[in-house]
Specification:
Helix content: over 70%
Number of domains: 2
Order of helices and strands: HHHHHHHHHHHHH
Number of helices: 13
Length: 374
């Protein structure tokens, strides 16, 4: 869009619609398979039945609603109308809550009603996103005055070149919890430590939501400016977001966690030892936000430049090479000094996050300088 290449935009949209059309049947089959596989899983009878119903309805329904809302939602973001994206999410949630209440307390559909309302709620967001995308596209086409209309000879490869590394990045991020659980499982008081880490991890994700929202907004902002050759604007926007994230982490999250950490730990923990472990971890959340924000903000800027591989490389470095050895060393040192292993683990994860963020920022800075000179 920044280059005003209308034909190429339409070409990429066709590729994305075809990709959804290919993926959706596969997830439909997966949802149907859950219905037949769930009864044979080693679960309690009530859990089997609930998973059978909820999993089937949600996965099959997502193939018909959630997946198809991705493209219009992304198109709206590409026009830098993140407010409409917010409203699409609001409509989805409002419809979900209303239908949840109706299906659960009026029709008494139980777990099926909960899953079905989630599926139908997505339709509201889909319809709203489609309407807003249509408005933006009509305006863009009406003002399309560029002679540039060349097509990408490898459009599918271009799209997948961004999509696949981004997907693998999230897979690596998801492995962090599994690795942490594995490391803690062999230690004394493993159950309490794992429970404490779960409390910490969920609150870190909650505290990072404004930073994640900033990263979502930064992608279309940077992409539009990359396309128009405004490298200085990209650099300025990135630095403003990093500064805002630092202020948020230290000035907002810091004081809040200093006050509520003991209360949260005692409220969410089921044992005094879990609460004790969680309290220290919760005090480090501002630093987790600070160290992780740069990593989260650099990735969308690289993607805005059409480069998906740097995010995957840095995720591999952070989660594949730094996290495990640093976590193991941190746990060993903490126990040697007489502290709980989870304390050393949390500090080690902060170090891994900080190091990868600094390296990612240095890479991003060099890339922007090269782009400005080229």
């Amino acid at each position: 869009m920044g280059e005003r290449q209308g034909e190429k935009i339409r070409q990429y949209l066709r590729v994305c619609w075809r990709a959804i059309a290919v993926v959706s049947p596969g997830f439909t089959v997966l949802g149907v398979a859950i219905w037949f596989v769930a009864p044979h899983m080693d679960l309690e009878a009530s859990v089997k039945r609930a998973f059978q119903i909820y999993g089937t309805v949600l996965i099959v329904g997502s193939a018909f609603t959630t997946f198809w809302s991705i493209i219009p939602d992304s198109l709206v973001k590409a026009h830098q109308d993140t407010r409409s994206t917010m409203w699409a999410g609001i409509w989805t949630n409002v419809i979900n809550v209303v239908l949840n209440t109706l299906f659960l307390f009026v029709f008494h559909w139980g777990i099926f009603g909960i899953a079905f309302s989630t599926v139908l709620g997505r339709i509201g967001g889909l319809v709203y996103a489609l309407a807003r995308a249509r408005v933006h596209e009509r305006a863009r086409i009406a003002h399309e005055r560029t002679p540039l209309s060349d097509l990408d000879r490898h459009a599918t490869r271009t799209v997948l070149g961004l999509a696949i590394p981004s997907s693998l990045t999230f897979v690596l991020m998801a492995l962090e919890t599994a690795v942490v659980n594995m490391l803690l499982a062999g230690r004394q008081h493993a159950t309490e430590a794992i429970a404490a880490y779960a409390i910490y991890y969920r609150l870190v994700l909650f505290a990072l939501q404004p930073v994640i929202a900033g990263a979502v907004a930064l992608l279309p902002f940077a992409a539009m400016r990359c396309g128009s050759g405004d490298t200085a604007g990209v650099r300025r926007g990135l630095h403003q977001m990093i500064a805002a994230s630092a202020v948020y982490s230290l000035i907002v999250v810091g004081p809040i966690m200093a006050v509520i950490a003991p209360w949260v730990a005692n409220s969410l923990a089921e044992s005094p030892l879990t609460a004790e472990y969680a309290r220290f971890a919760l005090f480090t959340i501002p630093f987790a936000c600070l160290s992780g924000s740069v990593f989260l903000l650099c990735r969308p800027v690289f993607e805005a430049m059409g480069r998906g591989r740097p995010g995957l490389v840095m995720a591999t470095l952070r989660y594949g090479f730094l996290m495990l050895p640093l976590a193991w060393i941190g746990m060993q040192e903490a126990e040697r000094l007489g502290y709980p292993a989870i304390d050393g683990l949390v500090i080690a994860l902060l170090v891994a996050s900080g190091l990868s963020s600094l390296l990612f920022y240095a890479w991003m800075r060099n890339a922007l300088e090269a782009s400005a000179q080229g």
